[in-house]
Specification:
CATH topology of chain A: TIM Barrel
Radius of gyration of chain B: 19 Å
Helix content of chain A: 25-40%
Strand content of chain B: 5-15%
CATH superfamily of the largest domain in chain B: Aspartate/ornithine carbamoyltransferase
Strand content of chain A: 15-25%
Number of strands of chain A: 18
Largest sheet of chain B: 5 strands, parallel
Strand order of the largest sheet of chain B: 7-6-5-8-9
Shape of chain B: globular
Largest sheet of chain A: 8 strands, mixed
Largest interface: A-B, 18 and 25 residues
Number of domains of chain A: 1
Radius of gyration of chain A: 20 Å
Number of domains of chain B: 2
Number of helices of chain A: 14
CATH class of chain A: Alpha Beta
Structural class of chain A: alpha/beta
Number of helices of chain B: 11
Structural class of chain B: alpha/beta
CATH topology of the largest domain in chain B: Rossmann fold
Oligomer: heterodimer
Number of strands of chain B: 9
CATH class of the largest domain in chain B: Alpha Beta
Distance between the termini of chain B: 34 Å
Distance between the termini of chain A: 23 Å
């Protein structure tokens, strides 16, 4: 038994914000209340700390199987635990692609053997994510997938997207799309705008994303499916999602910490600033923050995309897209959104907990009988992130050396302390 | 004045630095007419010339500039190198560095490649053109040409015609000439002249009609139409000729004393009418000579390491190697 005492319990599910103790018994929460005592329990003193439901990252890349040189389930989930995440959803663009039940089972087994946090795989929407034929979605669902996506690329063909949505609907699986029009994307490496013109780098217009979001919303209208837009970066995309929500469609979306923090003006000839979707204009970034604040955006997701050093130590044009993100996500949220008064602390916690849970169609709250998954963090601790200290195998992050206010302190998964900051 | 360590682009340079380079290039212009074109200034120094993209003019110009200063050169051509075997840029450059050159001239198809190299090597890096980003020595030689012909760099109306989006020459020219207070008009097919170009520097305007762009111009810089780009999107050369070829009739819309520049290689009959290319207003051959002078000035200062007020080598006959 573990008794978390003197903490500030912040639970978006019941809009709870109170000084409460939480008693964990095995893998479940046993009791929540004021001044709890349990003589046999180990005590965790959470004085001055926030006790929140366990954070969920609905978008990451753990690179296993196939690209273990960049990350493994073990190293990736260790980094996730240091970021406060108790569960992570790993995208299927592994080698081979997670498009069948045996790969899914392999991931689940590897996670059971060595993961620091819960791993909830996402299955491919199409075989090999090639956009031609349906993947073995029902079999993967039995093996443990929580959603489908061809992330890394869009489901380019509208007819196939319709079929994926129709097929996933009775299975209760959300369809996550990486929205991009390949004819507009056309080999670009950053957002099209004044910065790309100055740097002489090939630009990708924001419409590459928003056109695809618009199409997907149309498909969601046609099928009634649960559609989730991955790593949304453009104001126009957000408008489509808002319109869909107003129309009562089951459409959700996520925004990454780097898209609410940085803009295309930050891009230099440094491949740690190369990701897809690329960093957006200031106006788009500000619109995303508005969406995070007003509820139009459902979740913050990291799109943690590790790449080993050699693959990123090349010319900007040649580098792969993507940056790591687990260990800086919460700190960026606190520093960039909460301390700047753009979001309430409750809203930020919602974006890491009940928000992503709703996308997946599950519950997440601090109450007796619930899984003992908790994220304990400080809103004020000042620290500097060093990529070299990261638990991830890869260090490709533009936030190396950045100073933060607020940090994860402990991550509890199924009643077990997966991470605890040494003070 | 901040001493230059590398020449990666015009954008970060001050007008003082640019003026210094152009002033230092002046005696080297004269020098090209000497019967014995060799100095001992950089004797014993080696300049690596690394071209990861095909080029004839710039490579020969840099090689000749280095040789006339007395330096030796080592050449790396992408076609004949191990790049085709998958070696990374950083490994290729590190290998070159291990042969201990005193400077490296680099041309690369990726914007930012010279900066990437400069951050990792301890020797001066000369950008001989990177992707769509900058071609600083071309910007400097264009500036020297304009300054010689017009007397100064400030206050002129300068029109650049062609594929501006994909042109590193245009970016270097725009940064350089606007720093001195000239006004730039960029003109070409709309997809090659995006609106964002107006944010590159103050006093840049985008005009899509050729006649309007040429009106009142003091200098016209015609860019080469990269035929490999005509497919992006597919566009018939005849369309380009109809709308944007610089013809004698169109040239008359500019000021009577307007000068014409072209970075070469020129495609006569496509972006430019042969009568204009060879006409009295054309400065294309001066540009070639000025390219040598500017590159000699840069190699001399960045590799030679002479103080800014040292006697100019081209003025010291005793410096001649033989």
């Amino acid at each position: 038994m573990l008794l978390i005492k003197n903490g500030r319990v912040l639970d978006p599910a019941g809009k709870t914000d109170a000084a409460l103790d939480v008693l964990l018994d095995g893998e479940k929460i046993a009791k929540v209340g004021g001044n709890l005592s349990a003589p046999d329990a180990e005590i965790f003193d959470a004085k001055g700390l926030v006790v929140a439901p366990g954070f969920i990252d609905i978008h990451c890349h753990l690179r296993e199987p196939g690209q273990e040189i960049s990350e493994t389930i073990e190293t990736g989930t260790r980094a996730a635990s240091r970021g406060g995440f108790t569960a992570v959803c790993c995208m299927p663009n592994t080698q081979p692609v997670n498009d069948n039940a045996s790969i899914t089972r392999g991931i689940v087994e590897r996670a059971a053997a060595g993961a620091a946090v819960r791993v909830w795989p996402i299955g491919a929407a199409s075989l090999g994510s090639k956009g031609e034929a349906l993947a073995e979605i029902a079999a993967m669902k039995q093996a443990g997938i929580v959603a489908v996506s061809d992330d890394g690329k869009p489901v380019a063909n509208a007819r196939l997207m319709r079929q994926v949505m129709d097929y996933c609907n009775p299975l209760g699986l959300p369809v996550i799309d990486h929205c991009e029009d390949s004819s507009l994307f056309a080999g670009g490496v950053m957002r099209e705008g004044p910065a790309s013109a100055r740097l002489g780098l090939k630009g990708i217009p924001a419409q590459s994303e928003s056109i695809c979001v618009g199409r997907d919303v149309e498909m969601a209208l046609l099928t009634g499916a649960r559609l989730h837009i991955a790593h949304m970066s453009a104001a126009k995309s957000l408008e489509y999602v808002r319109a869909a929500k107003r129309a009562g469609l089951r459409v959700t979306c996520e925004v990454t910490p780097h898209h609410f923090t940085l803009t295309d003006e930050d891009v230099r000839y440094d491949t740690r600033f190369k990701m897809n979707p690329p960093l957006a204009s200031r106006a788009d970034r500000n619109a995303l923050i508005d969406g995070l604040a007003d509820g139009s955006v459902d979740a913050i997701a990291t799109d943690h995309a590790p790449h080993h050093a050699a693959s990123k130590d090349v010319e900007f044009d040649r580098a792969p897209f993507g940056i790591t993100g687990f260990e800086t996500a919460l700190a960026l949220g606190l520093t960039e959104l909460v301390h700047t008064k753009k979001l309430s602390l409750m809203r930020l916690v919602e974006l890491f907990t009940t928000g992503p849970a709703r996308v997946l169609g599950i519950e997440r709250k601090i109450a007796a009988g619930q899984p003992a998954d908790l994220t304990i963090f400080s809103t004020d601790r000042e620290w500097t992130f060093r990529a070299s200290d990261s638990a991830s195998k890869s260090k490709n992050t533009p936030f190396d050396g950045r100073a933060f206010r607020g940090a994860p302190v402990a991550t509890i998964v199924a009643g077990r302390v997966a991470f605890r900051q040494q003070s | 004045m901040q001493r230059l360590q590398h020449i990666l682009g015009i954008e970060p340079l001050s007008t003082e630095q640019i003026t210094f380079i152009l002033d230092q290039a002046k005696p080297f212009q004269e020098f090209q007419r000497y019967p014995l074109k060799k100095l001992a200034t950089l004797r014993g120094k080696t300049v690596a010339i690394a071209f990861f993209e095909s080029s004839t003019r710039t490579r020969i110009s840099f090689t000749t500039a280095a040789m006339r200063l007395g330096a030796d050169t080592m050449n790396l051509q992408a076609e004949s190198s191990s790049l085709k075997k998958g070696e990374s840029l950083i490994d290729t450059v590190r290998t070159l560095e291990a042969m201990r050159p005193d400077g490296i001239v680099i041309r690369h198809a990726a914007s930012g490649a010279p900066e990437f190299v400069a951050e990792r090597l301890g020797i001066p890096v000369f950008n001989a053109g990177d992707g769509w980003h900058e071609h600083p020595t071309q910007g400097l030689l264009d500036a020297l040409t304009i300054r010689d012909k017009k007397g100064s760099l400030g206050g002129w109306n300068i029109t650049i015609v062609g594929d501006i989006l994909h042109s590193r020459v245009a970016r270097s020219d725009i940064h350089l000439l606007t720093k001195f207070g000239s006004r730039i008009t960029v003109c070409g097919p709309a997809m090659w002249v995006p609106r964002e170009l107006e944010t590159l520097a103050p006093n840049v305007r985008r005009v899509l009609r050729m006649d309007e762009a040429l009106e009142g111009a003091d200098a016209i810089i015609v860019l080469r139409v990269q035929t490999e780009r005509l497919h992006e999107p597919a566009m018939a050369p005849e369309e380009y000729i109809l709308q944007y070829q610089l013809t004698p009739e169109r040239l008359r819309l500019a000021k009577p004393d307007a000068i014409l520049l072209h970075p070469g290689p020129m495609i006569r009959g496509l972006e430019i009418d042969p009568a204009v290319a060879d006409g009295p207003q054309s400065c294309v051959l001066e540009q070639v000579t000025n390219g040598l002078a500017v590159r000699m000035a840069l190699l001399y200062h960045l590799i030679g390491g002479a103080p800014a007020d040292a006697p100019h080598p081209a003025k010291e006959r005793s410096n001649a190697a033989d």
